[in-house]
From TrEMBL:
The lineage of its organism: Bacteria, Bacillati, Bacillota, Clostridia, Eubacteriales. One of its GO terms (biological process) is protein transport. One of its GO terms (cellular component) is plasma membrane. InterPro entries: Preprotein_translocase_YajC. Belongs to the YajC family. PANTHER family: SEC TRANSLOCON ACCESSORY COMPLEX SUBUNIT YAJC. This is Preprotein translocase subunit YajC. It comes from Thermoclostridium stercorarium subsp. thermolacticum DSM 2910. It is found in: Cell membrane. Pfam families: YajC. Keywords: Cell membrane, Membrane, Protein transport, Translocation, Transmembrane, Transmembrane helix, Transport. It is a single-pass membrane protein. The keyword Protein transport applies.
């Protein structure tokens, strides 16, 4: 029973967490991010466990923790 629960619940969750960690660790300056709170912005600086992003029309600078990033969007290269 436990083995079945592992393959149905735990294993997919761990795989998703690993993919999310890799996505955040591979983020570079210039990538766009969406936070878990819905804030979007462009990465302008990266520190150990923080990103500084520019957001909005007035290019407001916000420092966020890496764990608060939901998605990293790579720019489309031409």
């Amino acid at each position: 029973m436990f083995v079945l629960m592992y393959f149905i619940l735990i294993r997919p969750q761990r795989k998703k967490e690993k993919e999310t960690r890799e996505m955040i660790n591979n983020a570079i300056v210039g990538d766009r991010v969406i936070t878990i709170g819905g804030i979007t912005g462009k990465i302008i600086n990266i520190k150990d466990d923080e990103f500084t992003i520019e957001s909005g029309n007035e290019r407001t600078k916000i420092t966020i923790k890496k764990w608060a990033v939901k998605e990293v969007i790579k720019p489309i290269s031409e």
